[in-house]
Design a protein that fits this description.
With 400 residues, the chain is of the alpha/beta class. The protein has twelve helices and 19 strands. Helix 1 links the parallel strand 1 and strand 2.
């Protein structure tokens, strides 16, 4: 049974005997820990010699470990490694033998680091098993499925503005999932991937601040105040949104609120539904020989509304794909406007509801029929509307 221990090697001398790949790895690890490293070997890899180490180009001699705190015997010669280990034992210096764990007084674990957390894995002297376990733990830490809240001093609150992706929780970014696992409070939208919230620790406070058509839980000003006040109180705050926080997501407004309040913040981009939802439905927004450009439009306003700043005339006559968000309630007005401005009524259109989720529905029609077809099939938001010849690729890909 071994005794696990972490060492502070900052400014302390360590010796690596050997000049090959194993010695290179050991020297890099020691330097990262702040040790003063001496390398002893007749021949040393150029990569190893270029590190901030003292190199002695000769064979190991008795007395070479004098004054060091830790030694690594990392040569390809068992006799040399045994000699290093014997001197270390006599001088009561811990020594790691790279060639024979059973003859070693100390072992190198498989290590992964996650912020302030360091995980070292040993597996009964089986380095491959330890490496597999280490990789599994590293993946869980990085993905946030093994949440570890970092220690931090009081009043060190912060805000993370996270894009949750188009709907499928698996499309949330690794960094977004990790920051969720470290949160004290989460302010979530109705389109955010709610499934990941159930995996958080029970004491994480979850506040629904989502907006729906004609129904707002909170105004944007109230959300901004809540974000900043909780962070100023010392909490780690996550603002979890659907899609990307900077694509019609008010992420810029929330970031500016943090700046005004003096709150540190981080922006974690999300997989935007504007491109991801069509892609998962078999509709690329660009395709060679079909179109080289696309436009993403917030279509929550009637084209005739005086507050609309969308250039519908330019969109109607342009060659590219149109991706319309928040357009389900305006399909009749939008399709009529595009046809009036010059887009052919026979242009293919797809309406993708609940994209990337298990309840996804795809309605394919044409610009002059889409409004009636959507009403007949009771299409409801959230949905992404794609207008353009790229819609035909869905059938060619066998996804219709």
């Amino acid at each position: 049974m071994s005794y696990p221990l972490a060492l502070d090697l900052t400014g302390r001398p360590a010796v690596v005997v050997g000049g090959g790949r194993v010695a290179l790895r050991r020297a890099r690890g020691l330097l990262a820990a702040g040790a003063e490293v001496t390398v002893i070997a007749p021949d040393v890899l150029p990569e190893l010699a270029s590190l901030r180490v003292t190199v002695r180009n000769r064979i190991f001699r008795n007395g070479d470990l004098a004054g060091c705190w830790l030694a690594h015997a990392a040569t390809s010669d068992p006799a040399v490694n045994a000699a290093v280990a014997a001197e270390a034992e006599a001088a009561r210096i811990w020594c790691v033998r790279a060639d024979d764990a059973n003859a070693s007084a100390a072992w190198m674990p498989a290590v992964t680091r996650h912020g302030e957390v360091t995980v070292a894995v040993t597996a009964g002297g089986d380095p491959r098993r330890a490496a597999r376990l280490r990789s599994a733990i590293a993946l869980a830490l990085a993905g946030g499925t093994l949440p570890v809240r970092p220690a931090r001093p009081a009043k060190a609150g912060q805000v993370a503005l996270i894009g949750g992706g188009p709907g499928d929780p698996g499309l949330l970014t690794v960094r977004g999932r990790r920051l969720l696992g470290e949160a004290d409070v989460v302010l979530t939208d109705r389109l955010a991937p709610r499934g990941v919230l159930a995996e958080l620790e029970p004491d994480v406070e979850i506040i629904n601040v989502g907006k729906a058509p004609h129904a707002h839980n909170m105004t944007q000003e109230q959300i901004n105040d809540l974000l900043t006040s909780r962070a100023l109180a010392g909490q780690r705050v996550v603002r979890l949104k659907g899609g990307d926080p900077f694509v019609f997501g008010r992420g810029g407004e929330e970031a500016l609120a943090c700046v005004r309040a003096g709150v540190p913040f981080e922006i974690v981009p999300g997989v935007t539904s504007a491109t991801a939802v069509p892609a998962c439905a078999g509709i690329p927004v660009t395709h060679r020989g079909v179109t080289q450009d696309f436009a993403v439009v917030s279509a929550h306003l009637d084209p005739s509304h005086p507050g609309s700043t969308v250039d519908w005339a330019g969109l109607a006559t342009g060659p590219g794909t149109l991706v319309l968000l928040m357009a389900v309630g305006r399909l009749r007005q939008i399709s009529g406007e595009l046809i009036k401005r010059g887009r052919p009524g026979g242009t293919p259109v797809a309406v993708i509801s609940d994209g990337t989720t298990g309840t996804e529905r795809v309605l394919v029609s044409t610009l002059d029929s889409i409004a009636a077809d959507a009403e007949a099939q009771a299409v409801r938001p959230p949905a992404v509307v794609v207008v353009g010849e790229v819609v035909r690729l869905r059938e060619l890909l066998g996804m219709s």
